[in-house]
Amino acid sequence: MRFPAVSGKFYPSDPVDLKDSIEACFDHPLASGRPVRTGDERSIRGAIVPHAGYMASGANASNIYRMLKEDGRPEAYVVIGPDHYGMSPFNTVCSDDFMTPFGPCRTDKELCSRLSETIPDIPEAHRYEHSIEVQLPFLQYIDPDARIVPVMMSDQSPKAAMVLADALRKACEGRDVVYIASTDMSHYIPKAEAERRDGLVLDRIRDMDWKGMYREIADNSITMCGYGPTAVMMMLCDNCSPESIKHTDSFDSLGINRDSVVGYATAVLRPRD
Question: Which end of the chain is more exposed for a tag (fewer CB within 10 A), N or C?
Fold first, then answer.
């Protein structure tokens, strides 16, 4: 069992308070409201979601979880996050279940096993990482029986991203999954500059140009932390188009310090008509 690392910090540790916090995210002016139904015709193949504390990025993140709820339940959610702590020199999967204040969030053991034929299964590497953990209470809220495949990218290079995308494509063949890229955008720069720099990345995402996204990040010193997960998700959804792209930042949600913000972007990807 992988126990919470940021419960009580990024989100409440009490289950009642956590439910209230998530519903407050759905009710926030930056959000689109609570889910109104559970869909039965799946179309979302990928999503981009931020991973900061719920008070900062939860409202924007809730827009994605409303759409996922109303899209219908997949067999598994493949949650791909960056490694902030250098716990592994290479990309890893974690087959251990994740404990949250809502109870265990179960991993899809079959998919984790398939993936581990290429990507090592090292639960210990995931012990402190928050980029996957913060998504799980939202997933449990919209889908109490959610099954996950947690993948942490310690190597976000283009080559490693292509290897991981190929491994996931093979592992998930024949299964109905959603690929969730967990990322924040620019870090600790003025609001206007964050909007400009993040806009360059979002333009490449609109074009489904993951190679161009890498170039923009390098050429403009963009401190997006989950560019690798985003690229992998785009590769796996190469027959899709992004929709409902929304950019916010920490000033929008917290109302403090517009001279040093963190950017948050969300989007879903659906098959092209």
Answer: C
Q: What is the pLDDT of residues 60-117, one digit of tens each?
A: 999 999 999 999 999 999 999 999 999 999 999 999 999 999 999 999 999 999 999 9
**pTM of the predicted model as reported, rounded to 2 decimal places:** 0.98
Contact 200, 216 (CB under 8 A): yes
Question: What is the CATH class of 15-271?
Answer: alpha beta
